[in-house]
Amino acid sequence: MFRLCRQLLCNTKRMSEVNANAVEFKGHNDVQIQYMNEECIIVDVNDKPLRPGTKKECHLMSNISQGLLHRAFSVFLFNSEGKLLLQQRAMEKITFPGYWTNTVCSHPLWLEGTELVETDQKGVRIAARRKLNHELGVPLDQVDIDDFQYMTKILYLSPSEEDPVWGEHEMDHILVIQKNVDLKPEPNEVMDTKYVTKEELQEIFKQADEKKIKVTPWFKLIAENHLEPWWNNLNNLKPLVDPYNKIHKYY
Predict the structure, then answer these.
(1) Is 118 among the catalytic positions?
(2) Exactly one of 40, 57, 105, 135 is catalytic; which is it?
(3) In angstroms, rounded to a whole number, what is the distance separating the alpha carbons of residues 61 and 39?
(4) What CATH number labels 2-249?
């Protein structure tokens, strides 16, 4: 029985790889295409790691429609004034280009001993530090993994509006950090940044509702359902942390 299950899993993986390889990139940025070879962490609906899967495989709607789910993280970084750092995703991005979103949203990779480690959410915190440096140029010596406070998880699914070939189906781990950092955004990743107050963020969502700007769906979900109590208690977040096995499902 074990051999049969293993064979079925291997067959499913090969079928997903065939689907992924059948898609040609058209007009996309070469650097972003290379990133699609990174190995994300494919999980089940309880966030149990199953196997590695390329970023490309994980973001194809043809695979998502069959239930393929991967682990992600979203960072909300506040400065000492209590303002939230947002970024506008570069137009070179394959999914949701030009959208405003939270500080950093990305994926831990299938890296044993580091980003796969689940104890104390160490893996996603290691990945978050890596991506703060990669996307926003935050010096590594300015942020420690212990600066990130894990808050909760959300499970959501969203096709890309611009290109229905691509989408997101993520088990998203939410991290909050309050720290003053230096920024040097990578143009291939980020086209703009801004710190906002609560009132300014509400104005951004109003503009998004009026179709004047675009906001990523996961950012809107988190902001509307979870962000306010965290923002109000940046100096005392631990009482607001959900158990690691709690998952908020939004579909």
Answers:
(1) no
(2) 105
(3) 17
(4) 3.90.79.10
